[in-house]
Design goal:
alpha/beta, Rossmann fold, seven-stranded parallel sheet, 10 helices
Length: about 325
Amino acid sequence: MAAVETFLNIEPMDLSSTCIKRDSLKGEVAVVTGSTSNVGLGYVRAIAWAGGKVVVSGRNEKAGEEIVRVIDAENAPGTAFFVKCDVTREEDVKNLAKAAIGKFGKVDILVNNAMNLGLNGPVLGSPVSDLESSYAISGRGTMLTIKEFVPAMLERKHGVVVYSTTQFHYSPPMIGGAMYTAGKAAATSITMSLANEIGPYEKTGVGVFCMIPAGVGRFDPSRAPVSPDGRTRPSNPPSSTGFAGPIPPEANAAGLVYAIMNAGKLHCSGISVIDAFHEMKYPFPHPEAAKPSDMRRINDRELTLVFRNMGPGFGADTGRGYPV
């Protein structure tokens, strides 16, 4: 499938080589917050490709309207709908729900993805206002959308709630990002608490889980550092994920669609997109370099203790000042 001509930073969306079929999400309606760029943009395009209707949501109205045009061109007219929304504002989230239901009659899938990547400073080098903004977007925004959309899902006994999360904190050598990860941690906690509150998927029909879209982005060779002789740039060799460099947003979104299709199995848990790829037997461009993540699905009891068990504790080698 050729890419639609657009100013958006996208690649062609075609999941036919994966186990996902074009009607996999037929009849489903999804709301994705923060879906006017990068990861969220990939999510709405992939859900639409799989047959779902999508509500594009974000603060960038120009990008939002263009995304609707692209998705409709890639699929069929009326597939996508844009609603301008700042998830920190309760009135905006209520309007998002009203508009989405007014347009499509229901919402089956809620993907909380909104975040400001600029809120990525260290603890000692950031103003408190950055932390407040991070909590407002991730924590407050996630709770507001949950309260607007989940009750109807429970009433109909059908739905999926996903939080696009990240690490609890960045470990060496990725020191920094404290403001970003703090907000993400709060929203992850809210999401997993919700999963336990509503009870077993077998009884409610609503699956709640988190997914980590680690290493997603575009490689721009024009921005890569040149060699010492000033002549060449790196060739962007295959990474351990099985891709040449970062995971494309389109591929990452395929992992989310597969996870949504298996929400009942993932209820009350979290996975990385790499785990999703291996489970779905994703056709990696460089399969020889594709390695499973070193993460594992932890049980619910362990999950409740994650924020307590932050490091190696007594008896471990802590000479470097951080977990080993």
